[in-house]
């Protein structure tokens, strides 16, 4: 039987006030006020309040997600994967399976993080790409085209107001300002994210994408749909919220 994590999370959040004397918003404020930046430090601190390790970890993940529940309103990754890898007419399922490259885990970067980029220097995306130019970029991915489509569906699922465009050979993602770019080739996809001065983590490295602006600080090298999970979706959402906050300030 599959576990409905969204339902378990909803119950956990609803019972926080009764179980601990604080609701979710109060716990988020308490964690922020505590000033811990490392995940293990936050979890250890929460354990002092008689949270089990799993619930302390869950609360830390929600805080790391900007106070938003992890499983609420997230894209159905399994459904998206099935849609993205559904072979088009005339192409056998065997050929589609052969086109899926094996998963390659990106190396952890050791370079120093870049400082945050002023909002005035971040491009403002516009929906001027047109179907043909976007299709032309996706076509460069060849066997990776379904992976690129899956990634775009994940981005629009996590950030519903996003505008998808094309600039300088890159797919761009943004609303008030650009927060992500995608470089597509027949060897791999490179997803660049505007995450400011945060240290690369969770499989992200320092961005190295030709044509990306200095605001694109982190990247993930993608060759398999299994890399596009909850952790990467959270990083995408973080980049979106950070850039929008900069643009509004």
Features:
single chain, 249 residues, alpha+beta, 9 helices
Describe the fold and architecture.
It is a single chain. With 249 residues, this protein is α+β, with helices and mostly antiparallel strands. The chain folds into 2 domains: 5-64, no CATH class; 77-248, no CATH class. 42% of the residues lie in helices and 12% in strands. The protein contains 9 helices and 6 strands. The protein has helices at 5-20, 24-34, 39-47, 53-64, 77-84, 93-98, 130-139, 145-158, 230-248, and strands at residues 163-167, 170-174, 178-184, 189-193, 205-206, 218-222. Strands 1-2-3-4-6-5 form a 6-stranded antiparallel sheet. α3 (39-47) crosses α4. The chain is elongated, with a radius of gyration of 19 Å. Mean pLDDT is 76; it is low at 74-81, 87-114 and 126-131.
- What is the averaged pLDDT score? 76
Number of strands: 6
Q: Give the strand line-up of the largest sheet.
A: 1-2-3-4-6-5
Question: What is the CA-atom radius of gyration, in angstroms?
Answer: 19 Å
Amount of beta strand? 5-15%
Run of helices and strands: HHHHHHHHEEEEEEH
Number of domains: 2
Number of helices: 9
| Proportion of residues in helical segments | 40-55%
Largest sheet descriptor: 6 strands, antiparallel
Helix/strand-derived category reads alpha+beta
Based on Cα principal axes, name the global outline: elongated
Unreliable spans are: 74-81, 87-114, 126-131
N→C terminal distance: 47 Å
């Amino acid at each position: 039987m599959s576990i409905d994590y969204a339902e378990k999370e909803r119950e956990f959040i609803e019972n926080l006030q009764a179980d601990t004397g604080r609701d979710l918003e109060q716990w988020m404020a308490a964690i922020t006020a505590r000033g811990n930046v490392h995940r293990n430090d936050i979890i250890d601190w929460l354990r002092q309040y008689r949270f089990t390790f799993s619930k302390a970890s869950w609360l830390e993940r929600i805080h790391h997600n900007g106070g938003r529940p992890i499983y609420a309103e997230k894209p159905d990754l399994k459904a998206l994967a099935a849609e993205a890898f559904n072979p088009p007419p005339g192409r056998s399922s065997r050929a589609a399976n052969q086109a899926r490259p094996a998963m390659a885990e990106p190396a952890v970067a050791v370079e120093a993080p870049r400082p945050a980029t002023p909002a005035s220097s971040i491009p403002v995306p516009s929906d001027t790409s047109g179907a043909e130019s976007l299709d032309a970029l996706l076509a460069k991915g060849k066997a990776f085209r379904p992976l690129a489509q899956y990634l775009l569906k994940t981005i629009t699922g996590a950030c519903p107001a996003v505008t998808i465009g094309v600039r300088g050979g890159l797919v761009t993602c943004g609303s008030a300002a650009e927060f992500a770019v995608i470089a597509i080739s027949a060897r791999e996809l490179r997803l660049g994210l505007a995450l400011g001065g945060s240290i690369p983590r969770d499989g992200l490295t320092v961005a190295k994408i030709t044509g990306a602006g200095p605001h694109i600080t982190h990247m993930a090298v993608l060759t398999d749909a299994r890399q596009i999970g909850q952790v990467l979706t959270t990083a995408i959402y973080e980049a979106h919220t950070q850039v929008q906050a900069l643009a509004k300030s």
